[in-house]
Amino acid sequence: MKPERAFFGTGTLTIAIGTKPEQGRKDSASKYVVSTESMNAFHILAEAARALGLDAVNEEVPPPGLVNLNRPNLVVLTAPRVLPFLEQVLAADSHLGFKEDSAGWHLVDKTLGVEYRSPSDKGISQDYGYIGRLPRPDGKGTFLYVAGIHSEGTLGAAEWLADNVSKLYRQLKTKRFSVLLSVNYDEKTRKITTTEPLSQIYEQGGA
Predict the structure, then answer these.
(1) CA atoms within 13 A on the CB side of 184
(2) Domain-by-domain residue ranges, the chain?
(3) Residues near 132 by Cβ (< 8 Å), separated by ≥ 6?
(4) How far apart are CA 41 and CA 157, in angstroms?
(5) From the first residue on, what is the mean pLDDT of each consecutive set of 10 residues in the chain (207 residues)?
């Protein structure tokens, strides 16, 4: 097995994905759905894990998004609008994070004092994503968080992480870090065309 598998964990990965209520149902049954982009992000990360010798399973988290973060080998997908508890955990990132105001959710570089609002909100085929290793609430480890302002940002961030896991492991090992990404996608197919860093890779220190 390759040493960089430690970037993800030491055993079978659980990849938790936030879900939304299904729209347009004519009956009273409670059904929840995962966006196509988020499910594709799961498959990309699961394949990356398998290439490093790790298995991966998905866990769909229904509203109100109460995901259990206190466990090893965990990756969490989707934005705080779907998993609201993550907004509190993101406060531990002193450099980057999500923020909500009257204009909606956006990403912020706290160090530079810069806000990044998704161009897709103005009809442009571009979104922004976040990747970070965050502390578990119980203080007994960390988990990986991958999320976009919108689902295309989540998918683009997952693709970038899968493509760069070896490089990230060489640089960071299992230290806490975070980075913002700019994601371009095809408007018709919703497939990602390019993804590039929007911020520097901030190291938080600690394992």
Answers:
(1) 5
(2) 3-203
(3) 90, 93, 96, 144, 145, 176, 177, 178, 179
(4) 8
(5) 91 96 62 93 98 97 95 97 94 97 97 98 97 97 98 98 97 97 96 98 75
